[in-house]
Amino acid sequence: MKTDLFNxxxxxxxxxxxxxxxxxxxxxxxxxxDSGAIEHRHITDIVEYLREPxxxxxxxxxxxxxxxFGKKASGGKIELLLLEETASKVWKVLMKTSRRPKVGDVxxxxxxxxxxxxxxxxxxxxxxxxxxxxxxxxxxxxxxxxPPLPPYIAxxxxxxxQIEEDKNRYQTVYASEPGAAAAPTAGLHFxxxxxxxxxxxxxxxxxxxxxxxxxxxxPVSAEIITxxxxxxxxxQVSEEAxxxxxxxxxxxxxxxxVGSTSVRTLESLPILGSAxxxxxxxxxxxxxxxxxxxxxxxxxxxxxxxxxxxSAFADRDLMLKAYKIAVEEKYRFFSYGxxxxxx
Length: 343
Description:
Number of strands: 17
Strand content: 25-35%
Distance between the termini: 25 Å
CATH class of the largest domain: Alpha Beta
Number of helices: 7
Shape: globular
């Protein structure tokens, strides 16, 4: 199957550069797989589509301020995106610089509050660094790091006020497990008040963890989708979450995955239960879903693995039709954009 089958035309002005004024203002397209019907609603209307004993499965990973700046020994500038701590103080990173450091070179990061020693030089901008600081690195990142916004959020200037806004808004209200290099963006639309309303209706919430990593930043460059290789991402499903999800299924409720990362975690489990590991599952048509009954998701990039996943859940032609309508209706696209509920 060719990658071009998942392409669509998107006017650049529909790519959201900022979050909506309030989380609950996001629009929500509702796509009914059985009939092909499409409705135009708002995220707060999700309460009309869920009932007891449905369960919302959310990803509680927390985005760290993983974009950091520094200097090489020569004085040249360097920019890093911290992707994953593979061992104590050892980080896999994406590196941007005019001239790559050599193995053994020492870099000054975060206004001199941390140093990094080059351990390995990887491909496609990857590198392995040992990062050390006098204080816990997360404290330093909170002071000096910047939220790792995707490249399609291309603002002309980044003011301190915008950085503070992104630290708050490029994060779900239930984020609790630090480790992500990107937000699970379908969850950005929820507020504590919306969860309270759903809880009163008997809709439960189960939290799992998948730390979003390098795969988010790697577009599909292969002409044939099966030639694309997904990167591994770490996940954890607690006994409590597994019990909540299993009880919903046992009692006839829908398992509603909030975002592609929740889908990937659930579909990596042979059976519903507690688990911990890493997954590089690549979901594309045709695929028979094991556990997921409905998905809340944002609108995704053309020819992306995320659009392929949604086209496996709903018919590809129906999904592309929905995207065409979303463009016509001027929905806001990608991370800070609107969402789609697929039933």
